[in-house]
């Protein structure tokens, strides 16, 4: 297995959240995890970042369980951007991006010329050149997200894990960040695993979708296979119309109605 979950189960106390999930993420491709609120998507990503320890199973990278790697070694291979990230208030964009080089730093040494070249290049390709001296706290939400993504890219990872990277952004910045992720994925041949709530963005920007329901994998595959009105009804309890986005060559959904006891009361 290149990278994936092998028989992962997650509990919080006695409560079981995820049960026996096994999935391999294809190398160099983008896989997006979708599923209802509270279904365990973030918990799965946190197992990759080691913030959550599964009760059973393991994450496998290059055929070896993650726990057999040294943390510094892993940080050069896998970058993780959590859903909520608070920047220190007094650092500028360049400094934030440079944090991505920490796994490569020798003890007691500063950044090398090579590190600075990588930082320059990352700032260039993520369109941050004009913002590099600005304090991170003064950036708009979209600009800030770009800066954080740049930090992960500066790590030169093979695997990039993103938890809801566009959730708090307006539609313009959502599009900009998704295009950036796509560009970086293609140029750096990244294996991207992310969680998105927006099914249409997930459909358009993913090679594969993984849907989570009832503690496990409900469906996995090409967006065309996953985005069907029957499956979306099962996963989210919604009725929807599905169309073909011919320009982007993927399905898109118009949600119609939620199956909800609140809405039908009194009818
Ligand atoms: N540290 C924790 N302690 C106890 N329960 C937790 C903890 N973290 C998450 N949970 C619970 O585990 C379940 C899964 O949470 P998780 O955040 O993984 O779901 P999610 O699919 O990412 O949800 P959302 O789409 O709302 O972000 C939820 O019921 C949540 O309340």
From TrEMBL:
Keywords: ATP-binding, Cell membrane, Ion transport, Iron, Iron transport, Membrane, Nucleotide-binding, Transport. InterPro entries: AAA+_ATPase, ABC_transporter-like_ATP-bd, ABC_transporter-like_CS, P-loop_NTPase, Siderophore_ABC-ATPase. GO terms for biological process: iron ion transport. It holds the Pfam family ABC_tran. One of its GO terms (molecular function) is ATP binding. CDD domains: ABC_Iron-Siderophores_B12_Hemin (cd03214). This is Iron complex transport system ATP-binding protein.
């Amino acid at each position: 297995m290149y990278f994936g979950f092998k028989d992962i189960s997650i509990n919080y106390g006695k409560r079981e959240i995820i049960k026996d999930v096994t999935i391999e993420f294809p190398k160099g491709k983008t896989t997006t995890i979708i599923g209802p609120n509270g279904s365990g998507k973030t918990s799965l990503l946190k197992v990759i970042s080691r913030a959550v320890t599964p009760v059973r199973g393991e994450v496998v990278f290059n055929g070896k369980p993650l726990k057999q790697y040294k943390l510094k070694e892993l940080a050069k291979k896998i970058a993780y951007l959590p859903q909520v990230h608070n920047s220190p208030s007094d650092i500028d964009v360049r400094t934030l991006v440079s944090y991505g080089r920490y796994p490569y730093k020798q003890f007691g040494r500063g950044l090398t010329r090579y590190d600075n070249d990588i930082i320059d290049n990352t700032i260039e390709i993520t369109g941050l050149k004009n913002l590099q001296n600005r304090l991170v706290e003064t950036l708009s939400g979209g600009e800030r997200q770009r800066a954080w993504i740049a930090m992960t890219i500066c790590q030169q990872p093979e695997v990039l894990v993103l938890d809801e990277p566009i959730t708090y952004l307006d539609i313009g910045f959502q599009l900009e960040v998704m295009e950036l992720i796509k560009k970086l994925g293609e140029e750096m041949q990244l294996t991207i695993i992310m969680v998105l709530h927006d099914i249409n963005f997930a459909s358009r920007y993913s090679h594969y979708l993984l849907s989570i329901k009832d503690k496990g994998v409900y469906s996995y595959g090409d967006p065309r296979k996953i985005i069907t009105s029957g499956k979306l009804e099962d996963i989210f309890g919604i009725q929807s119309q599905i169309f073909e986005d011919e320009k982007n060559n993927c399905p898109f959904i118009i949600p119609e109605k939620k199956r909800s006891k609140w809405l039908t009361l009194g009818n």
